[in-house]
Amino acid sequence: MPTDPRVTAAFRAMKVLGIKEVKVKPVLKKLLKLYERNWELIEAENYRVLADAIFDEEDSKVEEQKKRCNNADQEEENLVHHQPERPLKRLRLRHQEVQVSPTHNTSNTMLGDVAGIVLKRPKLEEDELPETSAQQQSQKMTEMLEFRAEPYPISPQHATRNKGKQLVLSKPLAPGERSDPVSPVAVQGKRYVSERVSNALCLKEPMTHPVAVVLPKPKVFDCHGLIIPKDEPFTDDMFDGDMPHYGVPIAMIHPDPLSKGELPVEKDEIGKKVGEDTSSQYIETESRANGPVALSSERRTNGEFAPSLQESSSELAVSTLGEDGSTNVIPTLSGLDDHVQGSKRTSFDDCVVSDQEKKSEDPECTKMCGLVVVPQCEPVPDDSRSFNDINDVTRGEERVRISWVNELNSEFPDPFRYIPHSLVFKNANLSFSLSKIGDENCCATCNGDCISGSVPCCCTRMTGSEFVYSSAGILKESFLDECISMTRHPPCLIYCKECPLERVKNDDCLEPCKGHLKRKFIKECWSKCGCSKQCGNRVVQRGITCNLQVYFTSEEKGWGLRTLEDLPKGTFVCEYVGEILTSMELYERTVKTAKSRKCSYPVILDADWSSKGSLMNGEALCLDASHYGNVARFINHRCLDANLIEIPVEVEIPDHHYYHLAFFTTRKVKAMEELTWDYGIDFNDIDQPIKPFQCQCGSRFCRNMKRSNRSRYMLRSS
Ligand SMILES: C[S@@+](CC[C@H](N)C(=O)[O-])C[C@H]1O[C@@H](n2cnc3c(N)ncnc32)[C@H](O)[C@@H]1O
Questions:
Q1: The SET domain covers which part of the protein (predicted)?
Q2: All domains in the chain, ordered by first residue
Q3: Of 66, 141, 291, 301, which residue is the least packed, with the fewest Cβ within 10 Å?
Q4: ipTM of the complex
Q5: At 541, is the pLDDT very low, low, confident or very high (cuts 50, 70, 90)?
């Protein structure tokens, strides 16, 4: 046993991750040498560097093994060349090769350079498997599961072997009925290497962000430190063809002792209880009898995490907990990296909600809050959510379960990480301070439910002193119609003098702005408001309550989203959630991955670029749901007469450089109808962030009609 307590602590931290001392020791030695015994760098973020280095070492071993297999394979091939009657052995070797390379890491050349660790990613041998075979399907599924970063072996009872058949669920569900298709899962009961903490880090640039505020160090419970997305999680070289090589998500939380179902925490206790669910889920039981909330409570019989009616008086908010048991506020993003050791990032709500904090209003401690969200509460082995929830794309992250089906072929959805709240990628600066939210931006003196009050509160200032939601939580028709008409007849466009989207291209000649849709904002009550969380002016922040399903469309659009229940006009469906990037980051990312990806998932938050302050130092913000996103990433485009409209919603940031993009139904939508929105793309513009596609929306207003016979990629000149 080592005597140095720091070594012991490192061993202990790795042990929690399931890594044995014998594996830790050599890597730790290397790192100590590399960092000239600067322990702080190694200890940062709960030994993230160390964990990654170990995992990389493991990967390199896999790689070496694979190389050996390749060599053997090559030899076999030579043999086969001369002895064509023996192809079977070759096939067997191929098969082995697939078996030994379940990890698809993101590469980290720097780490490889400095730590002497080979970091080449085992290449997915997808092409070499027989097309559409059950094996291929199971391999795909395996990758999907790996990407889900399950830290535990999958028990055979949790795994259903896919026989190549697809699940089918086509009948509309009655409200409250649970959509529960049997998903084909093919797993081998092996331990997935994806328990790795984060694989996108750069040893040469450790933690250089300035610390904005000093916060109490979050207490480390028996879960691991939260890993901050420090470096670009997905880079160009991570993609071979269409299939990204997902290793593990940049951010990941390890098993939490409690499941969501065990969260009945009284309001007063928020922030005081240890071990409560710190996932980003904003879980709230509602007491309003007939509001949207009550409706959603009913619907929650869909999901296994629906609180019972008895809980209806309690609010369940999630918080990070400080050493003293008080609620921590997540610092600015830049500061977060330095502060987050051992803590879990949580949702916006978690950042700032505690009454305690409201009272303190200490500028030091009225913390700069960053929109940093880590959604995952990884299941513990006996957690029933483990893998049998594969038919819930949200993986328990939403209040409702959302199944996926493919009635047409044997394709699976591409792997992605489900997050219920957006997550800052890297440079997007979303720091803001509660103390800077003035009275005009919140209704501090309200209490209870604002919309049932006799006088509209000041949160209605942007909407003509009227609440936009009805008492049933539905968008009022007058407001909705106005929003629709602003996008359709003809669209109200605003032009920037110097468009940030053009500036990022860094061309010699700055192209004129192509115009941005002017939109009406909704302002919801929030944390600094005096009203309760059951206030009717809080709809979007409560999350999805509709009964939805991801399905494979028949019109060559890939996957789509449909509703399994009738939705009245003005219903909130979901928010567009993804990684928050700057326009520059998005540009770089889309340029890099333009050719390799079939679908693209970016959205530009340009609703208010005309107003002062909506750009941060000229930088615009965007969302990208390619790798991290919620169910909105499946919503397909429809020209003009889509049944959803996206409306910007101000929740926490008054100056609109960041806002939530919420989808509401534009008309009554029947069960089983596909949900669509107008991406607002110009099919003649080859230079926009979303990759051009041949529109199959079927609308009689389709803007891509003329091109319908041209191939999908003809629009892009390159
Ligand atoms: C945000 S994703 C929507 C989900 C996507 N269909 C999937 O399978 O993941 C956008 C991509 O879907 C496809 N898509 C969306 N709407 C479409 C349409 N009307 N016609 C054809 N393809 C469409 C395009 O490939 C586009 O890049």
A1: 546-680
A2: 1-148+193-204 (no CATH), 403-416+435-707 (2.170.270.10)
A3: 301
A4: 1.00
A5: very high
